[in-house]
Amino acid sequence: MKLPGKSVLVTGSARRVGAVIARAFAAAGCRVVIHCFKSCTEADALAAEIGAPVVCGDLTAPGGAEAVFRAAGHIDILVNNASLYRHFEVVSGHDRDKSYFETNAAAPLRLLELWSLQPLSEGAAVNIIDRDALSSQTGGDYLASKRRFLAGSNEFARKLAARNLRVSAVLPGPMIPPDEVADKSMRKTRPGLPLGRPVSPDDLAAAVLFLAANDSITGAELILGGSTTA
């Protein structure tokens, strides 16, 4: 699928990895829709930079995914990036128990359903999950939500293939935050990583664009940063 001219919704794209992905699609000639929930200032700045509309909304609220998708308009490429990250977010008590599943599984799977209901002759969805979703370790609520998302991603890939709608997943290992995140320790070479370093946001964005553009790929589970044997 040729990317120029395609409409792309990137959830959670006001900052961090989502913003890098949004910039990459804009550079490829796509019409990008920026989604944010609380990061309105950052979303507005990115919108001015790449000339993209902004859709604000809580994807986990009742009817939230529907409202965001309706506001975004026709979408050829869906990138489910919005997530509650165990490395960057501090969540406690009720919010943790409630939010991991709703943010990391229920909301993106609902967006996949809404995307698939459009009258599309071709299209692609790329889901950002986590390499550790393939691990045999339990991982608590966070990894349980990611495993559910991965299973749902594969279900949609099988169901939609006959309609030429492709669904794949990118599973990054530990990530380097973008430059604006002041966590210098994450940028250092670390032992125990197959490549000796975390995954960069630019590498993740390149993987997302590759899966979106390649008409022969669906149901892929693309691991970045090396596989885990845990």
Describe this structure in words.
- With 230 residues, this protein is of the alpha/beta class.
- It has a single domain, classed as Rossmann fold, CATH 3.40.50.
- It has six helices and seven strands; from the N terminus they run E-H-E-H-E-H-E-H-E-H-E-H-E.
- The protein has helices spanning 16-27, 40-50, 64-72, 93-116, 140-160, 201-213; strands at residues 7-10, 31-36, 54-56, 77-80, 123-128, 165-172, 221-224.
- A seven-stranded parallel sheet has the order 3-2-1-4-5-6-7, sandwiched between helices.
- Strand 4 (77-80), helix 4 and strand 5 form a beta-alpha-beta unit.
- Helix 1 crosses helix 6 (201-213), helix 3 (64-72) crosses helix 4 (93-116) and helix 4 runs parallel beside helix 5 (140-160).
- It is globular and about 40 Å long.
- The N and C termini lie far apart (36 Å).
Q: What's the quick description here?
A:
This protein is α/β, with parallel strands linked by helices and 230 residues long.
List keywords for this structure.
seven-stranded parallel β-sheet, Rossmann fold, 230 residues, globular, alpha/beta, 7 strands
Q: Which strand-content bin applies to the residues? A: 15-25%
Q: Which percent bin holds the helix content?
A: 25-40%
Order of helices and strands: EHEHEHEHEHEHE
Total number of domains: 1
Please compute the radius of gyration using only Cα atoms.
16 Å
| Largest sheet report | 7 strands, parallel
* Adjacency order of strands in the biggest sheet: 3-2-1-4-5-6-7
The end-to-end span amounts to: 36 Å
